[in-house]
Amino acid sequence: MLNCGDTFYAGETEDDEPHLSIIITPPSEGEVVTVSITTRRRKSEALACLNVGDHPFIKHESVVAYAYSRTRSVDDIEFAIQSGNAILREPVTPALLKKIRMGLRDSDFTPNGVRHFYCSLQIEE
């Protein structure tokens, strides 16, 4: 069973470049919110910057791409892992999880449906 803070490496489709995804909510009715990590670029949103050492997967300065956050089915993620289309990675620390959550609420790029689902969970920081 996947939990809040778990991470996995996968693409959205078979042709998509894979990224590290982080589950930032506990499962609710079989769904979780995930965010995607990407390399920091000049025009990247910098609400949640990650540096080497923040997570074993991070090899250079990266950011949370809140525009790509999603509400996803736990069953779909687990199936992707079991079928080899996603690779389970190390969980994030509680401090990093808190930082990422704060950015999700504050980002102008978080999809409204994702923000609404996240806020409905009333997660205590």
Overview of this structure, please?
The structure is a single chain. This protein is an alpha+beta fold and 125 residues long. It has a single domain (7-120), classed as Roll (SH3 type barrels). The protein has helices at 74-82, 94-106, 112-120; strands at 7-10, 19-23, 31-39, 49-50, 62-73, 87-89. A six-stranded antiparallel sheet has the order 4-5-3-2-1-6, with helices on both faces. A hairpin with an 8-residue loop joins strand 1 (7-10) and strand 2. The mean pLDDT is 92.
Total number of domains: 1
Compressed to H and E, one letter per element, the order equals EEEEEHEHH
The biggest sheet, with number of strands, parallel, antiparallel or mixed sense and barrel status, is: 6 strands, antiparallel
SS-derived structural category: alpha+beta
How many separate helices? 3
Q: Which spans of ≥5 residues are poorly predicted at pLDDT below 50?
A: none
Work out the oligomeric state of the chains in this entry.
Answer: single chain
Total E-strand runs: 6
Q: What is the CATH first-level class name?
A: Mainly Beta
Shape: globular
**Largest beta sheet: what is the strand line-up?**
4-5-3-2-1-6
Euclidean distance between termini CA atoms: 23 Å
Q: What is the annotated CATH architecture?
A: Roll
CATH domain topology: SH3 type barrels
Which percent range fits the helix content?
A: 10-25%
Query: What is the CA-based Rg, rounded?
Result: 13 Å
Overall pLDDT, averaged?
Answer: 92
Strand content: 25-35%
